[in-house]
Design brief:
The chain is α+β, with helices and mostly antiparallel strands. Helices cover 26% and strands 13% of the residues.
Length: 163
């Protein structure tokens, strides 16, 4: 086993007046581009926002732990309340689509042209017109059409459709 001596560092510029040139790092500003699109659907847009009531029910059920369901009384469902809770509504009162849906669709479309989806996640953003009044999620405003009730095949689902 060899024992090494501790190396003593000598100053590089000891007793000299010579200056070392430092490399300059220049960071260019990003080249942001914006595009505006008008989207026209061929079918009604059906949305289903996860309501606060549903979240509270899940939380309370999990806090209670496992219990028998046999003796529980089922409450009557208020379909109008479920319909209103299914909407993505902005603080200003208009209805919208989550901005993340557009971003995710653009990233997913990269598959069709062979562009790396991981790079698209860094490059693609969707500017929001407002924010959801309950969840705070960014929304893109729906400019045409009015919400109406839409019943799915299972009668327990009531969703909001914009046509």
């Amino acid at each position: 086993m060899a024992i090494r001596k501790k190396a003593t560092a000598k100053p590089l510029l000891a007793n000299t007046t010579q200056k070392i040139s430092q490399p300059t790092v220049a960071i260019r500003p990003p080249r942001f581009k914006a595009a505006k699109f008008k989207i026209t659907g061929t079918a009604p847009y059906v949305q289903h926002s996860f309501s606060q009531k549903a979240m509270n029910t899940i939380i309370s059920t999990q806090e209670q732990g496992s219990q028998a369901r046999k003796g529980r009384v089922r409450e009557a469902k208020d379909f109008d309340a479920v319909y209103r809770a299914a909407m993505h509504k902005a603080k200003a009162g208009w209805h919208g689509i989550p901005a993340a849906a557009f971003r995710n669709a653009m990233i997913s479309a990269c598959r069709t042209v062979g562009f790396k989806m991981t790079l698209a996640k860094l490059a693609v953003f969707c500017e929001a017109d407002g924010f959801d009044e309950h969840s705070g999620d960014p929304l893109v405003k729906i400019t045409k059409g009015k919400p109406k009730k839409h019943f799915a095949r299972k009668s327990s689902f009531v969703r909001c459709a914009v046509t």
